[in-house]
Amino acid sequence: xxxxxxxxxxxxxxxxxxxxxxxxxxxxxxxxxxxxxxxxxxxxxxxxxxxxxxxxxxxxxxxxxxxxxxxxxxxxxxxxxxxxxxxxxxxxxxxxxxxxxxxxxxxxxxxxxxxxxxxxxxxxxxxxxxxxxxxxxxxxxxxxxxxxxxxxxxxxxxxxxxxxxxxxxxxxxxxxxxxxxxxxxxxxxxxxxxxx
Length: 196
Fold this sequence. Notes:
Elements: H1 12-15, E1 24-27, E2 30-33, H2 40-57, E3 63-66, E4 71-72, E5 82-83, E6 87-90, E7 96-97, E8 100-102, E9 107-111, H3 117-131, E10 135-140, E11 145-151, E12 157-163, E13 167-169, E14 177-179, H4 180-184
Parallel strand pairs: 4-8, 9-10
Antiparallel strand pairs: 1-2, 3-6, 4-5, 6-9, 7-8, 10-11, 11-12, 13-14
């Protein structure tokens, strides 16, 4: 992989040449190195969310994908945003190609970790909103809470906060609900010192 230059603007074409074995995201042409591996708590939450979503999606046209899975948010424009949400649901199969998702998914879910929290809460929030991702979930393992952001008629996110005892409707999947009590139950109580 060539040495990345500070203040250089990169595109998806450049991103495809980065073969250093590391996971990168590209936001407005700026590369962001992702954490080498998510924490056990992060992984448990991701698996439990995926399980509930997939159980609902069985035999339905929408598809669920888990990271690493490239989402090119503005693939028809500058092609300089490539993100890897923890989970995505895509209901328009024309957006799925052999490289990932081309355009906005219907649902993007990010599970916070200390190294990604600012990017997920600020940068990705703004880019998902601009790309018109209909629903964006920010899952916080530390506070055992979920912020659900849905687009209103003006293209702005309206956020609702949910606690670990709530059952949350998935707006883009009518009839689908996520039981947060099942999501945040820890299978291993030794995870208290986990700080990814």
